[in-house]
Amino acid sequence: MHYHLIGICGTAMASLAGMLQSRGYKVTGSDQNVYPPMSTQLESLGIEILNGYKAENADVGADCVIVGNAVSRGNAELEEVLNRKLLYRSQAEIVKEEFIRGRNSLVVAGTHGKTTTTSIASWVCEVGGLNPSFLVGGIVQNFGASFRVTDSNHFVIEGDEYDTAYFDKKPKFMHYLPEIAIVNNIEFDHADIYKDIHEIKFAFSRLMNLVPSNGRLICGIDSPIVGEVLSEMSGKLFTNIETFGTSDAAKWQAREIDFSGRTKFKVFRENEIWGEFETDLIGEFNVRNCLAVIIAADAWGISKEKIQEAFDTFKSVKRRVEIRGVERGVTVIDDFAHHPTAVEETLKALQMKYKGKRLIAVFEPRSWSSRLAVFQEPYAKAFEYADYVIIAGVYNTQKASELGKVLNVEELVSQIEANGKTAFCLPDADSIVAHLTPELRENDVVAIMSNGGFGGIHEKILDVLKDK
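The structure assignment produced for this chain is given below.
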């Protein structure tokens, strides 16, 4: 069997390519936007990548073409596939049929924290002896990969609410056959495909309704909208519902959270002490991520001792509060945060971890929603935990403007300054490096937030500091 992936360097597509190769299939692909970590992963696997989307790429002789969700009509390669009436499928369809069907599936969904939570869950299942297959939207450092295929009956997967393909506009997570579903939180995002929060709520309600009667639906009700969806679905969900959070309303609660050293917390179930845990992960959002995994792991029979052993040895995820280097006393951190809530929670956690040090936030509006004015006001609040803020120019402004009003970076900077912060807007990575590096001093912490490559800004800053 020969699979050819159009848009192979997307996070999910690159992982699927590796999964298919591990099954012994021939795999090729094409793309025009190639950058680490996925390009590196594909190179290490020896998977051939054709540069650019061209009609002649259809000559590779694939038995099935997998069309990425970033590929749309008008793409020369896709048009040739359609004209030749070749067999094509979506990434999520292939994952479902090749890897999930017939297995126990844990699907991790939510606006924030999916990748980290899925990574924690995969490692907890591994330490717990379940030998899981998994598919994650990032490189899990414990495994050095974003995927694994085993002969186990357990599969852990990140459930993305983004649509599946141009010919299948429902969310990817609708394909993943959850035995257990975690819904960490729900907020408005993906303004390019969702009109408003009501459409997002409907998408998540459909996921909730997929969980079978012998499964578990694990819902984070610290997120008000999750609570709203549960209330609206009352009497319509025929499964076991487990609510979690820090509030008294949750069935499973994280209490007595202590950030003074390692993050420590106690778990209560129906107001009875259930266990005590600690982790090197920072921030209240990661306590919630861990709590969701604890509930899922318990459902799959993993002991508390094994859960804690996994927390002790978990190495996090690339691009999630990842320290890229320390030069001349300056710590440079890479994070994937792009939604205003994720930006705020990340900076809040970093301020707590690096108490007393100057926290510099560098943000690139690159995701579809972050490029639009829909989050103009929330972003002004999101940077309150930083001492010094730099906002890059909106990525591909012309393309973003086709969807609506674009984020006004100059206005955002003025709003941040009005909140008493030092803030600048600079067009790109090189101009930011030129401006920022002379300003840096020992003990500074630079948090760089983008969901893309951001012009290699992390290494450029570290290189300049090294040369000094």
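Interim note for the steering committee: The mean pLDDT is 92. The CA atoms of residues 218 and 292 lie 7 Å apart.
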